[in-house]
């Protein structure tokens, strides 16, 4: 079993090139199924979730090859819409295959979504969309089936703002008959990226990036080329790493506007931020201040950034409060941080962080990708060695976590637990 060992590292200084966004890539790769010709996607990260999609793609006849920084997809040979339940359930965004394959095949059988299991993650709004467009949904123990003789445009109001269901609605509606209107839609950059990609293939989606999206159904989509947007969540975490001990980190190939709330909060705790056209530099300080964070859907502070922010707030003097409004129980990193000496109290949907206390090394377990980033950062700030298990979760989101953190001077390495020490160390880290 693999684990990551970190050592206390001084100020983190350097430049990191940011890869394409995981959460956009997972939607775009499924969206490519809708095309009637070859699609080229640039900037898709080499992460585990993408490898699973490639595997699913091979099973259903979607030809997919990676050439340099491009993924070339030939969807013309897709012959099946039965997705292996085990593969679908090994990552979250498999639900996009349901939206994308429904109009072409009239029936999709697919495993229930997996991915980071930090709390319950309902899919009722996805189901609402399919039903509104005229489909029937049958739920079974490990999989579900969506079936529709014909998809017809509909007026859909989301009961909660969800990026996943907004994207899935666009995928299902682009080839539906007539007009679909989405109200209370998510306005995340990943929603816009998916709409831009589909429009480039010939879809007619209007208003993505606002809470009202109109989709005029078309009868087919062409092939085309698209570059995925940069990963704002990875960029945010690297910028925060500059704050650990007064470092200086530049992230390249980013869209600074996508990080508005994150940068504002970093400045609020005493960091300094400089934005260029496609790069951001963050400067740390040795006297970070405490603050309050409340997560929310874009453009609010992202739920996926509260964990690395928590690692940073442990360094700030005073009491910080992180309130989680998107996934109220997304605090699996907190008991792990306590093993390193962090003083954090959990009450309902808030974490009360007593900053400025020294951290020490220990064995900890990453339960999801962002918890992993948080533990990595805490490990770099802790005295001694910190060993992080659950590397598979971190690798769902990072291409090469070791090299990218090393490039800013972090001391860390990937290690293998030998069979004998395995059981006790696992117990220690869980
Ligand atoms: C693969 C991907 O893109 N993952 C991201 C996506 O997840 P995901 O697509 O699962 O998240 P959503 O944006 O859909 O969820 C937002 C909120 O809506 C709720 N909800 C969602 C769907 C539904 O049918 N019913 C419902 O109630 C969720 O419980 C949550 O409170 O957005 C999350 C919120 O920014 C991020 O943490 C994830 O990194
Ligand atoms: C929660 C995340 O991923 P997923 O939705 O794929 O589980 C994440 O990217 O932080």
UniProtKB/TrEMBL annotation:
Binding site for UDP-N-acetyl-alpha-D-glucosamine: 92, 121-125, 304, 326
InterPro entries with a match to the protein in the record: Enolpyruvate_Tfrase_dom, Enolpyruvate_Tfrase_sf, MurA_subfamily, RNA3'P_cycl/enolpyr_Trfase_a/b, UDP_GlcNAc_COvinyl_MurA
Catalytic residues (UniProt): 116
Key words of the record: Cell cycle, Cell division, Cell shape, Cell wall biogenesis/degradation, Cytoplasm, Peptidoglycan synthesis, Pyruvate, Transferase
Residues reported to bind phosphoenolpyruvate: 22-23
Location of the Enolpyruvate transferase domain: 10-402
Location(s) in or outside the cell: Cytoplasm
Chemical reaction(s) catalysed: phosphoenolpyruvate + UDP-N-acetyl-alpha-D-glucosamine = UDP-N-acetyl-3-O-(1-carboxyvinyl)-alpha-D-glucosamine + phosphate
RNA-binding as UniProt keyword: no
Gene that this polypeptide is encoded by: murA
Cited function: Cell wall formation. Adds enolpyruvyl to UDP-N-acetylglucosamine.
Any one GO molecular function term: UDP-N-acetylglucosamine 1-carboxyvinyltransferase activity
Protein name in UniProt: UDP-N-acetylglucosamine 1-carboxyvinyltransferase
Pathway, per record: Cell wall biogenesis; peptidoglycan biosynthesis
Organism this protein belongs to: Paenibacillus planticolens
EC number(s) given by UniProt: 2.5.1.7
Family the entry assigns: Belongs to the EPSP synthase family. MurA subfamily.
